[in-house]
Amino acid sequence: MSGRGKKTTELLLVPKKTKSAKAGLQFPVGRVYRLLKGGNYADRISPGAAIYLAAVLEYLSAEILELAGNAARANKKARILPRHIQLAVRNDEELNKLFSCVTIAQGGVLPNVLPELLPKKTISLKPPYKYVQSQEF
User: Fold this and answer.
1) In whole angstroms, how far apart are CA 31 and each of 35, 44, 54, 81, 130?
2) What is the spatial distance between Cα 111 and Cα 117, in angstroms, rounded to a whole number?
3) Could you report the per-residue pLDDT of 43-88, keeping only the tens digit for each?
4) Cα separation of 106 and 81, whole Å?
5) What DSSP assignment string belongs to 108-130?
6) What would the pLDDT profile of 100-122 be if each residue is shown by its tens digit?
7) 88 with 67: CB under 8 angstroms?
8) What is the pLDDT of residue 12?
9) Which residue, 51, 73, 103, 125, is most buried by CB atoms nearer than 10 A?
10) Helix, strand, coil: what percent of the chain each, to 5?
11) What whole-number distance in Å separates Cα of residue 69 and Cα of residue 87?
């Protein structure tokens, strides 16, 4: 056989597997690769760089969403609002450092009252009575 006959269709029946599926990620590796190439960050971009960057972006997104979901649940809300993202980011030390120069729209500020501004406790005139057991049995 010269190999010029009909091609077998066995290879065509196998569905294509995306780069994201091969890497076990949810974020689009192909899109990240395309944007890295078109962004003029370097002359050459490795496909491994796109996989690594997509994995890092997915991890950061999952971390922020988890903390924001906890903040929403603490406020008895079912939906994550920008306020919950702000609370999640600012209460986490590492994320706060990463987002130090970022302003989250509609995020508000952390609740913070200086102790000097709180009302001082008044001293009661009556001496405190300690609990004394009765002598009767």
Assistant:
1) 6, 16, 9, 27, 71
2) 14
3) 999 999 999 999 999 999 999 999 999 999 999 999 999 999 999 9
4) 9
5) -------GGGSPPPPPPSSPPPP
6) 999 999 999 988 888 888 888 87
7) yes
8) 64
9) 51
10) 45, 0, 55
11) 10
